[in-house]
Specification:
Two copies of one chain form a homodimer. Chain A is built from nine helices and no strands. By secondary structure, chain A is an all-alpha fold. The longest helix of chain A has 26 residues, at about 115-140. Chain A is elongated and about 60 Å long.
Amino acid sequence: MQKGKETKMAILKAGLAMASQLGLDGVNIGSLAKAMNMSKSGLFAHFQSKENLQIEILEHAARVFAESVIVPASKTAPGIPRIKALVSNWIDWSAQLTGGRIFVSPSADYRDRPGRVREYLLRQQNDSIDCLRRVAQLAIKTGEFREDADCEQFAFDLYSLLLGFHLYDKLLDDSETKKRQEQALKQLVANYKQ
Amino acid sequence: MQKGKETKMAILKAGLAMASQLGLDGVNIGSLAKAMNMSKSGLFAHFQSKENLQIEILEHAARVFAESVIVPASKTAPGIPRIKALVSNWIDWSAQLTGGRIFVSPSADYRDRPGRVREYLLRQQNDSIDCLRRVAQLAIKTGEFREDADCEQFAFDLYSLLLGFHLYDKLLDDSETKKRQEQALKQLVANYKQ
């Protein structure tokens, strides 16, 4: 049983690396079995379908995301320091192989393809946006943001900034990207401050 | 010859529709030939390779983008009115099937895959960012933006906003997305104004 769990986790790790390279659609049981030196039927026994495999890869990515981004940020002081920590962790995650590629591109790719993968991605994106809204609410509580600051708007603004960073960084290889992102965050926080 | 051109244009239109549904990677000569009721060899004669086909689809998308977004905006008054027109046209384009999907997702997907498709996407994204920088420079000239407004930063901020809109609109089906985007644009322009 323990052995089975370990094997499954190793498959999910390899699957996440593969999804980062080829996109979620590029992962299939055949190619993953080959990469893992397993038989197709041996790997199939763990997941039963490509859809299950894709969802378990996304769940694995979400766990890594939570551990690398959300949990460390939640240990910092609420308010602006927590917002900054969240952005900084998010960007580090995005700069890694698995960042963005694993949630952002599939989100666009699955836009018109109903099913469990799309539902999972939808929920995951909504959770991310909720998280951004909550850090803004905390910044109102600490008195750093204005009482009437629009936290839904803040979530949109900050999510946009993170996507902008992701695309500049991933595609354009712009050495100034970090500076741009820092300036944008500074202005964003200023827009909501007391 | 005329007939050949017409056929090729019809293939590119169908290819763009297919890329909008399945992503650029989902387009291949076999499936496109089937959709066009042509033989594979007949279609192959027009493009010679999948890479050529993909690049010609991207070029076709870029022409549609220029005609729907850039050209009409360039006919409006320079400065803030032109920025607003550009955003409005861009969003209309993004809301269509072909928007974003055709440039944004492939841009992430081809991040680590050197070749002509990646080079084309890189150039295309850089052109878009140049365009955003230029409208900000014009807004300085009309006296609407501050003399020392950072046009590179404006391009990053506005590009982020457009990506944010794209993802909210495409994935989250958020009925408030339009309102969020309008509020974000209003704040963005205010940040750079005299």
